[in-house]
Design a protein that fits this description.
The structure holds 2 protein chains of 2 kinds. By secondary structure, chain A is mainly α. Helices cover 77% and strands 0% of the residues of chain A. The radius of gyration of chain A is 19 Å and the shape is globular. Chain B folds into 2 domains: 58 residues, no CATH class; 80 residues, Sandwich (Immunoglobulin-like), CATH 2.60.40. The chains are: A mainly alpha, B alpha+beta.
């Protein structure tokens, strides 16, 4: 019974985290229209990719202090449930779902699209709201691959918050090629400064990894690569690349790569 | 009661954290029932979400929006007759910025619907000076943009 009560607390915390992390998206108009308009196959791919990501995230920041695979799977599934239920409830309260008949695939698409960031929030809540001190279960054992995974999650998380908006495309249209190159330089420098220079969590370990050049090769360069890759994937998923000239796609990816690289750099802050 | 549960919870969470790194048996067996339920619900929802979406992706009808406009009711107001309309998209793709026109004799009224998902409907109103119930009223969708 006590363990049930403890789990209920963890679950409530997960709902709290999901709410905190996903309400900006739930209250964004583009998320609703994208839920209707997104290509169904791409939505399936997105959902299927989100499950292993939740699993990995559960390993690094689950709402239970565990390491075992069975628990990670259970946590990831519970987080998905929290994400779906919370987005369904909130979207309904916001009157987003009521407009069309319920249980159509428009409704399903809206909920599915919002459920993923909410589920990520549910898992992050374990760390953010859990009152576990820093370094309690700090991912000291995150190897180079784990580090890259965390960067990918951080990039996804920050980029997802702005990726659905029209502004990403508008900014890309407004920017000239030189401005785009400047933004690339800024993204890489900021990524490097965040990773190497500022006193953010996880920094000491990276400094131990070697000198400035070593950090650049080991963290900054792959980090920016991941940020660009995830930006392009999100734009593709949202159908933003459809019928767009390659150089505009590149600019859009660079624009979205800016928040994504900030997310990758500060993954340790949120994850 | 609540105080009691609070005090009784603390030791469990304390004892749970040192247990984990040790990887000892006790916590492996007593996974709370609630955890199984939560995970079960999650599995069910994940399967439903992926299943329905995949089914839609593979077997869903791909056809352009086909929009029917129906007159639902007419309400006389001090500022004209409000013809309440319902636009139903029978087609296989969503339409956005749907332009709807009503022609009543030589009077025209327009409305734009932001979004009509496939197999769904949206409602709105057209405002006429004359009574739409009397004259022949023609309702139709004039155009749309592909949803993105």
């Amino acid at each position: 019974m006590q363990s049930n009560a403890a789990y209920a607390t963890a679950l409530a915390r997960a709902f709290g985290g999901a709410l905190l992390f996903s309400f900006p998206l739930l209250m964004t108009m583009e998320m609703w229209s994208l839920g209707v308009a997104v290509d169904r196959m791409r939505l399936v791919v997105f959902l299927l990719l989100s499950l292993p990501m939740l699993l990995g995230l559960s390993y690094f920041a689950g709402f239970e202090p565990t390491f075992r695979l069975k628990d990670e799977v259970l946590d990831a599934l519970a987080a998905f449930a929290v994400g779906v239920l919370l987005s369904a409830l909130l979207l309904w309260v916001f009157g987003v779902l009521g407009q069309n008949s319920l249980f159509t695939h428009a409704t399903l698409g809206k909920i599915n699209l919002c459920a993923v960031p909410a589920a990520i929030g549910a898992l992050l809540a374990g760390k953010q709201l859990g009152g576990r001190g820093p370094g309690g279960r700090e991912k000291a054992d995150a190897g180079p691959l784990g580090e890259l995974f965390l960067m990918a999650v951080g990039a996804t998380f920050l980029a997802f918050n702005v990726a659905p908006t029209e502004e990403m495309i508008l900014i890309a249209y407004q920017m000239g090629p030189w401005q785009a190159l400047l933004l690339v330089a800024a993204s890489i420098s900021l990524l490097h400064v965040y990773v190497y220079g500022l006193g953010f969590p996880g920094e000491e370990r990276r400094r131990q990894a070697g000198g400035l050049l070593r950090t650049f090769v080991a963290f900054t360069a792959p980090g920016y690569g991941i940020a660009l890759l995830i930006s392009f994937y999100l734009l593709w998923t949202f159908g933003r690349t459809q019928g767009v000239a390659p150089h505009e796609i590149a600019t859009m990816t660079i624009v979205l790569g800016f928040p994504a690289s900030l997310g990758a750099a500060t993954a340790r802050l949120v994850v | 009661m609540p105080q009691q549960t609070k005090t009784s919870r603390k030791p469990t969470s304390r004892s749970a954290s040192p247990k984990a790194p040790g990887g000892k048996q006790p916590s492996a067996d007593d996974i709370p029932v609630l955890e199984w339920i939560a995970a079960g619900v999650g599995l069910l929802l994940a399967a439903t979400a992926v299943g329905f979406t995949a089914w839609d992706a593979i077997f869903g009808v791909v056809s352009p929006p086909s929009i029917e406009v129906r007159l639902m009711a007419v309400d006389p107001t001090p500022h004209g007759y409000v013809a309440q309309i319902k636009a139903i998209n029978h087609g296989g793709s969503p339409a956005s910025q749907v332009a709807i026109e009503g022609v009543l004799g030589d009077e025209k009224a327009n409305a734009t619907f932001d979004y009509i998902p496939e197999q769904s409907s949206a409602t709105g109103g057209l405002i006429f000076k004359g009574d739409p119930r009397r004259g022949p009223l023609e309702l139709r969708a004039k155009g749309f943009a592909d949803a993105s």
